[in-house]
Amino acid sequence: MFGTAQRRLGLPAHRRRPCGLYDTGARLLIRPCLPAAWPGYHVDYRFRATTYRIDVVRTGGATPSVTVDGELQSGTGVALVDDGVAHVVRVAM
Predict the structure, then answer these.
(1) Cβ density class 22-50: b for 16+ within 10 Å, e for less
(2) For the whole prediction, is pTM greater than 0.85?
(3) Which range among 6-10, 29-33, 47-51 shows the weakest confidence by mean pLDDT?
(4) For 72-86, what is each residue's pLDDT tens digit?
(5) What is the Cα 35 distance to its own chain's centre?
(6) 50-57 and 87-92 as β-strands: parallel, antiparallel, unpaired?
(7) Residue 46 three-state SS
(8) 35: helix, coil or strand?
(9) DSSP string of 48-92, one letter each residue
(10) In the predicted model, is pLDDT for residue 7 greater than 50?
């Protein structure tokens, strides 16, 4: 995450990585690491004119599942779209 990627995220790199957010340009990879005492967290992530509300919750599942606006995604990545609409991302782990 260099240059324009760092500026458009709104979070410095040292804060994105502990949250498990990795911007590849076209996709946001989400690989959360929750401390044992945390039930979850949320991050408001800005991609150009679009906001993604990312909720990470501990559900006890063996592998994380990711939904965007209620639609199950394959893997733990989210396609980044600059459509100016607020999106809700839920990561259950």
Answers:
(1) bbeeeebebebeeeeeeeebebebebeee
(2) no
(3) 6-10
(4) 999 888 999 999 999
(5) 17
(6) parallel
(7) strand
(8) coil
(9) TTEEEEEEEE----SS-EEEETTEEPSTTEEE---SS--EEEEEE
(10) no
